[in-house]
Design goal:
- The chain is of the alpha+beta class.
- Helices cover 19% and strands 36% of the residues.
Length: 308
């Protein structure tokens, strides 16, 4: 997936989400009144960027999946308003997170801004959960000129991202350690990465396996282990790892071959392929034992409740 300029071929798919009640029900604008001509006109008017930047989030096959924007770019105050909408088909597949982080990083690196802000209705539970899960700052002191744009709305929750924020700068995912696999670069000849049992990871390795040739958008996993410990990493491509245990539910994108996650407690896991043919490698502490698996989500919830 990547960002690109909007194209006229995107208009029908843009109109699709505008008329999808499940997408627009909590948005500020009445998109349901928009027509195909409105979409085409919007695209034509957004080929050059001044105060606003509107870009398409596209799949690897160049299919339009949504629009991400920087609005009201204010060079004087070094700020802009962020907005994003994705098609229903794109939800839960990593497009929202990719589009958001890509446009915010662009705001800081290309446009020299210091902060990006946005708001959502507190009734929009899906959006609030998304932003809270990723620990974005809740903004309190919003400038009056910005608040005036939303004077006819109440019960809004404001967020901001600041220059210097690193979106995945953390050591754990729901208590599971993020590890940096030792990597030795060679000028002009790539990198060598390696890890050693009981040194780099705190268990003996009895089994290793990998998952490959998976199409984009496919989810795998849907299980937990009672005792098994595992190291998961992605040597090629991009995979979203969603983990849940007694500490909550979090996700991390595996796209750097030198970054892995050690799952050493009963943890439900799902893996979403963000890029086709991505490879997931796993080093496990035990041989395959079917009795160690928990494949039913409700059974898993009961198990961790009992254990904790």
């Amino acid at each position: 997936m990547y960002l690109r300029k909007l194209q006229l071929k995107d208009a029908p798919l843009m109109l699709e989400w505008m008329h999808d009640e499940s997408v627009v029900q909590d948005l500020h604008i009445n998109f349901k009144s928009k027509t195909l001509s409105d979409c085409e006109e919007f695209i034509k008017n957004n080929q050059s960027f001044t105060e606003n930047v509107n870009l398409a989030i596209a799949s690897d096959e160049d299919e339009y999946m949504g629009t991400v924007s920087l609005k009201h770019i204010d060079k004087k105050n070094s700020s802009a308003e962020f907005a994003i909408t994705v098609r229903k088909e794109a939800m839960g597949r990593g497009y929202s997170w990719f589009g958001m982080t890509a446009i915010i990083e662009k705001a800081f690196s290309e446009y020299g801004l210091e902060s990006v802000y946005w708001c959502v209705s507190r009734k929009n539970n899906r959006a609030v959960r998304f932003y809270d899960k990723h620990s974005f700052h809740e903004a309190i002191d919003i400038a009056p000129e910005i608040l005036n744009r939303y004077s006819d709305e109440d019960d809004l929750k404001w967020y901001s991202a600041l220059r210097g924020d690193i979106f995945e700068n953390r050591d754990t995912v729901v208590g599971c350690k993020i590890v940096h696999i030792k990597t030795i670069p060679t000028v002009g000849a790539g990198e060598l990465s390696f890890y050693e049992a009981n040194h780099d990871i705190d268990f003996e390795i009895k089994r290793q396996y990998y998952i490959s040739k998976v199409p984009e958008g496919i989810r795998r996993g849907f299980h937990a282990h009672k005792e098994l410990k595992q190291l998961l990493f992605c040597p090629y491509g991009r995979i979203q790892l969603i983990l849940e245990n007694e500490l909550g539910r979090e996700e991390i994108e595996l796209s750097d071959p030198s970054i892995g996650v050690v799952i050493d407690r009963p943890t439900w896991r799902e893996m979403l392929w963000l890029q086709k043919d991505s490879v997931l490698c796993v080093a496990a502490s035990e041989y395959y034992e079917v009795e160690d698996y928990i494949r039913d989500y409700n059974e898993f919830k009961k198990y961790i409740k009992k254990e904790n």
